[in-house]
Amino acid sequence: MSRSSKAVVSFIVGAAVGVAVGYFLNSDKKDELVEKLRFQADKLKDKFRAKKQQFEDAMENELT
Asked: Which of 36, 43, 54, 57 is 20–30 Å from 25 (CA)?
């Protein structure tokens, strides 16, 4: 693929993503989408904290 065709494809993909984001932000489902994203972010934070605690416990056990 040539450099100019990659640029055109990138532009089209970027424009499509922009349109999709704009649609969701202006739709009635915006609040629902934001709530789902917050929920998933909270779950990810909880998983990270649990893994961090496991790592800290394993390191402590290894050093004692």
From this structure: 43
